[in-house]
Task: structure prediction
Amino acid sequence: MTDATVTTKPVRTTSASAGGSHSGITIGKVLLYIVLSVGAVLMIAPFVWMLLSALKSNAEVSTFSWLPKHFLWGNFVEAMQTAPFLKYFRNSLIIAVGETAFTLVICTMAGYALAKLPVRGGKALLSYFIVLLMVPFQLILVPLFLVVKSIPLAGGNDILGQGGNGWLDSWWGLIIPLGAAPMFTFLARQFYVSLPSELGDAARMDGVGELGIFLRIMTPLIKPALLTIVVFQVEAAWNGFLWPLMITHSDDLRPIQLGLATFSQVQGDVQWPYLLAGTSLAAIPMIVLFIFAQKRFVAGLANFGLKG
Amino acid sequence: MTTPTLTAPPRELTLDRGLAQKRRRHSILRSQKRAGWWFLAPALVHSAIFAVIPTIAVIVLSFTDYSFSPSFHWLGVQNFTDLLGDGRFKAAFINTVLYAVIVVPLAMAIALLVAIGLNQRIRGLSFYRTAFYIPTVTATVAVGVVWLWIFNPGSGLANGVLSLFGLGPASWLVSPTLALPSLMVIGIWQGIGAKMIIYLAALQGVPAQLVEAAKIDGANKWTIFWNVTWPSIAPAQFFVLITSIVSTFQVFDLVYVTTHGGPGVATNVLVFDIYNNAFQSLHLGYASAETVIMMLLIGAFVLIGRRLQGANNLD
Result:
C-alpha cells in the first residue's frame, strides 16, 4: 500500500514538461528518438563489443572486428582456470552483502531518529551528517588506514591498538569502515520524514514500544525506499577498488575488481579474451540488479533531495 | 442555575484526566528522547571513528614526517613548501582541476538534456533509462579495462571508427597530449547515467499544476522551462553538482587501470599521487599535506559551484 504512495507520486506528474503535442508523430519526436537511440548505442556498444571480444581467440583480438569467427564459449571456463575469478566473485559477494546489511541496520535507525524522534540538537546532528556526506573517502584514505590498523584487540593488537595489524587483511576491515556511509543515513531520514507521525502516536497510545514502532510500523512503510539504499550500497560495495587494494594482501579476501585489475596489470602478454570474460562476469550482476530494481529505484530517488 | 453544579464534577474530572494525560505524554516524550539517542548511537560512533577522527588526523599528520614508524617529527609547514616545488604534484593538481572543469559541466549538461528527452512521454523509457545507466552501475575497473581495449592503438574500436571516416590511427592513452582528453571522454561517458537518473526523478516531481497554469497564461515551452522547470529542479541540481565535483576529484580507479598516471605525468591526478606518496613511497605526512590541499580545493569548487548556481537561480 505504501508502494502505491511512493511510486505513483512521480507517475501522476509525468505530464510536467511533456509539452503541448498530444499524440501523433511530429518531426520533433522523431528527432528525439534518433538522438536518444544514438546515445543509447554509444552507451551500450562498448559492452556488446566486450562480450563479443571475450569469445574471440587470442589471435583474433589483435585486429579490430565486431563478430568473432567462432564463438569460443570455452574462454569463460578457461578464464576461470587462469585466475581465481570465482573466488574473487565470492569475496565481492560477501563484502556486498555484509556492507549492505550493516548499512541497513545502522542507517535506518539513525535516519528514523533524525526524522521522527524528538532528539535534542536533532537539527545540528542532521547538519553533521550532511557535512560528512561531502567528505569523500579518498580524502581520509591515509588516516583511515591507520585507524583500521590500530583497532584495539584485533589482529594481534593490544588494548591500545599497538603491535599488530588490527583489521588489515580481514573481512571486518573490508566491510565495517566503508559501511553505513552518512549519505545513507541522510537518504533514510528523507524517506522517514515523509511518513505521517500520527501512525507512531497511535501505536504509542496502544502501548507499543519505540523499537516496535520503528521495526513493525514505520520501516515496513518505506520498503521501496530501502530498495534504493540497497541498490546504491550493493553497487558501491561491489565496485569498490581502492580500499581493498590498500588493506588486503591475500587472494582469499580480494574482491573481483581487484582481481581484474591485477590480471590486467600483468606485464607483457595480457590475455585479452580472458580479461574481457572476467570483466563481463564482474559487470553483469550489477546491470541485472539495476534492470530489475530500476522502477522502484527511480521512484525512491524522486523522494530524495527534492525536499530540503 | 443548576447547570454549574451539574457540570462541575465532570469538569474537574476532565481536568484531572488532562493532567494524567499530560504526565503520560511527558513520560512518553522522555522515552522517545532516550530511544532517539539509542537509535543514533551506532551511526554516531561509527562516523566518529571512521570519518571524524581520520579527518582531524589528516590535518595533524600533514605537519609531520610520519611514515609508519612510531618516531616522527613536527615539521611545521615544510611539507607544504616542499609540495610547491614538486613537479609531479603540480602536474597532478593541474590535471585534476582540468579534468573536473571539463567533465563536471559537460556531463551535467548532457545528463540534463537526456533526462528532459526521457521525460517526454516516450516509448521504451525503461530501455533508454537502462542503456544510459549501464556505464554508471559498472565498476570503474571494468570500464577502464573496456576502454583500454577501445583505445588500443592497434586493434581498438576508437581507431576502427576513425578509419571509417578515413582518419589516421591515433595513439589515445599512450599519447602525452591525447591521454588526459581520452580519460575525460571516459569520465563523461561514465558520469552521465547517475546524474541523468537524479534529474529524471526531479523532473517527474515538477508540479503539473504549475506547468498547466503557465500554459494557460500563454507561456511558450522555453519560458516554461526557465521559469517553472528550472527553479523546481534546483535542489536536484545542487545535489548533482556537489556529488559530481566530489566524484571527479576522486578519480583514481580509472587512472590506475588505464594509464598509471602516464605517459610521464600526463594523467597524474591528485588521488593517484596521494596513493603513490602514501603507499609506495611511504611518506604519509607528505601525502597528508597533499590531502589537505585537495580538501581546500574541493571546498573552493563547491563554493564557486554554489555561487554560479545561485546566480542562475536569480535570472
Remarks:
- Chain A has one domain: 2-9+76-302.
- The mean pLDDT of chain A is 81.
- Chain A touches chain B through 109 residues (CB under 8 Å).
